[in-house]
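We emphasize that the prediction below concerns an isolated chain of 171 residues; any contacts that depend on oligomerization or on bound cofactors are therefore not represented. The input was used exactly as deposited, without trimming of termini.
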Amino acid sequence: PEFCILVCDHLHAEVEEALGTEGFEQMVAVAYKADCDRPPDDPQPIIRLSEASGCNASVILGGTCLERIRKPLTKANITLHRTDTCLELLVNKSIVADYFDQGVHLLTPGMLREWQQKTAEWDFQGEQARHYFGESVSRLVLLDTGIDPEAAGNLSTFSKYAGLPTETVPV
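Result of the prediction step, given as a token string:
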């Protein structure tokens, strides 16, 4: 491939789907492991992914989680397209801000695929999780790209765990 788009695994399926449309044959989506709680300090894993892809050029898409590794990526000829939050890759910045102002916890299908693993890392148990989410979150909103057939079920299960109402917004 001529061009790689590096994106975290929370958004990989969406980028891959977009690249499957006509006119993007020389592009490929390459996923790196997302860790929204602990943004990367070491750019080398991403640089190695880019080099291993065999692409002539690479761009990495993401949010503020990439800020710490911006300079080393640029030195490795990887162009960084950083937004304030990775959710802005799916919806307009003002929409994200409006939801955040309402206390909404926005989710992608990719985030929901990993919610059980993530909450296990946080070591939340039953009522503790409901208390944590209830303190600052009014509801869970899935930005549904239509890519993942399991997204609605994952949202429902996470909602029961967190004790919060849900909304699904097609994007």
